[in-house]
Hints:
The complex is a heterodimer of chains A (298) and B (451).
Chain A: H1 3-24, H2 40-43, E1 51-52, H3 64-71, E2 74-78, E3 81-82, E4 86-88, E5 95-96, H4 98-110, E6 117-121, H5 127-132, E7 138-140, H6 147-150, E8 153-162, E9 164-169, E10 176-178, H7 187-190, E11 193-195, H8 200-208, E12 214-218, H9 219-227, E13 232-236, E14 242-249, H10 253-268, H11 271-280, E15 293-294
Parallel strand pairs in A: 1-15, 2-6, 2-7, 10-11, 10-12
Antiparallel strand pairs in A: 3-4, 4-5, 8-14, 9-12, 9-13
Chain B: H1 53-63, H2 65-132, H3 139-156, H4 161-186, H5 191-226, H6 231-255, H7 262-322, H8 327-347, H9 351-372, H10 376-383, H11 386-448
Amino acid sequence: MLSRPFTLTFAAVALCLTACTAESTPATDTEQRPPEPFTVEEVASCDDFQKTFRADPKVGEDTSQARIAARGRIIVGVGSDALGLSARQNASGGIDGVEVDLARHIAEDLVGSPDKVELKVVNSADAVAALETGRVDMVINHTPMTCTGWERVAFSAPYMQTPQAVLQRAGNTGRRTCGDDVWSLSLDTVATERIPGRTPGACLVELQRGGVSRIVGGHAVLAGLAEQDPQLELSPGTGAPSVYAVSVRADRSDLAAYISARIADWHATGGWRSSIDRWMGPLGADVSFVKPTYGRTP
Amino acid sequence: MSKPSGSGGQSVPGRTTTAPAAGQQPPGAPGRPAGTVAKTSASGPPASQKGQKGKGRSTSRKERSTPTKLRMLRGATVAVILLTSLLTAVLMFSGRGSMAQAAGSTEQLIRMHHIKTLLLQADADATTSFLTGREATTYVSAIEEASQLVVEASRSQPDDEEQLARLNSAIVEYNATTSLATANNRQNFPVGAAYLDEAGTQLREEALPVVDALIATNTHAIEQQARMVPAGVVFLVQLVPLGLTGYLMIWVARRFKRVINVGIVGATVAVVASTVVSTMATSTTATEVRSVTDRNLVAAVAIADARSSAYDAQAYQSLSLISRARSAEFNAAWQSAALSVNQSLRGAGEQDLVDLWRVNEINHRKIRSLDSDGDVDGAKKLATSREVGQAFTDFSDSADERLRTNAETSTTTFNDSGPRLVAAGITVSVLGPLAAGLVIWGIGVRLREYQ
């Protein structure tokens, strides 16, 4: 059921990457046209990518969430190097951040305890495979809602919105850009020389070692990177803001609807604000809660 | 002293006899060799006989042929003996040089394996310190020792200098990246794990390939140098003077009444002794070298490989618990490294080490089981526990001891064969001229009989 759209999407992305690679080749002929930036809109050309399934707080019977509840713990895919969102803490050895708080909030309602969460680190590139193979129940890894994303997974209501940003050294004029097709939504809009497929931490290593000139991505992610290197400057980027949502397997709309309900009550009860203040506040990250748009049908 | 034999009798049929018969007074001046003057020939016609002048001249030429032949044979035999003894001595000294080079290459090979192990040990320690949050205990000393060994290796084998310079740069770069990883980790910056990943990649993609290339180069060199013990060649070379002195002895015995020519017999004995000494020295060395390269050296290399792979596995075990995003990848790398440990040790017949390694495999399975069950903290606790650490230390220490024993046996064998070859070379150098002198003296005695 998933194979055809997934194949088509993969082909489209592959075509895009091929085009981008061709575009990114430095011009050697003065008459050659400068490479055209590859826009997000060409990848995700739909206008309802924020629309999700109506929130449903019921666990019910014979639902995806009921099966997880029966297991007694939820398995959540998270990142490990996005400071403030989901990052490994040296002192505790565990992973903490806003996204982990959200996972614990979901677990508290679904399996009765915020501690009954098994965190598995997954890269954004491996997220779909992790969901499809059942390695994780859901992925909370600062994944922006996009049209192409909807072809591979199902999204909950958004839990965070953050504008695009650029992280670079003061006075940088280089164009070699590090990012990821998922967490760097604006990568294609600004990059003529792009180094995709890196985690935020790997991009920071590249930037500090001079392999790239800048990193593009959501402000929430880049603020965490900027915190680790005071010589870097965070400036506004271009393009639409990233709207982060929890992703689940494409055929688990019931679970997506359930998580949307949990996000709504997390926000309504002040849990969201508390978590944001704790993790994002010290970083000065520009984040906001976005009102969900319901109405998508399975 | 033997005297020339007379014609007929034991002479070769049809041969022109030039020497007087035994007990017969030569017709010329006493002691003059019969062949030098036609009148002195026992069978030759008197020089005064007319009408036979032409025939007499013809016979005279033939009669002069024995001393000439003696001189020619003497010259040829002496030349062959001297040349072959010189060649044999050169082969011996060259074999000794090859053995010294093989010993040097073996030491370099073991040094390279040690560097590899130290680098992987440092990496394993650095990654484990990320798990424990404590300072790496052996990282600094391992890197320092590896750097010192690189310098030592460069001095020992100047041919490896260029690659060792590249290795040194790679180690410096790896150390810098690991330092960044540690510094970031201390500040609780997640980018520390990314630097640790980067350092591991640098180590495996830049430093270790250089070490592996040097290991391959030195292994090849040892194989080549071990083949440079020319046992067969020396024997064949020595057969030439042996055959020639034997032929000379028989030839002289057939032409003169006295069968035994002390000089030639003495020369033959000297050549036989030279052949025995040189062949024994080279064949013994070749056998020992073959044995040591087939057994001890192979075992040393296999154990060194296993030990490196074991440290590699330990680093991957830690990395799988640190870089959670690449946990599956690192676990697969652990499996591959563990397989390599087993294959190397089984190939070398090191069952004791296989058993010690099995304890580490069991520990790894326990760690993976905890991780798979979601008990990541439990997995980390077990991975950094004293019990798991001790099991690895037991394996590493035993492997180190076995490696050292086999390596020392190899280098000792190579080094010990040097003096043997030198002694044999000196013996041959003495026996050759001695044999040549005896030939000159022995033939000289015969030639004097014609004067």
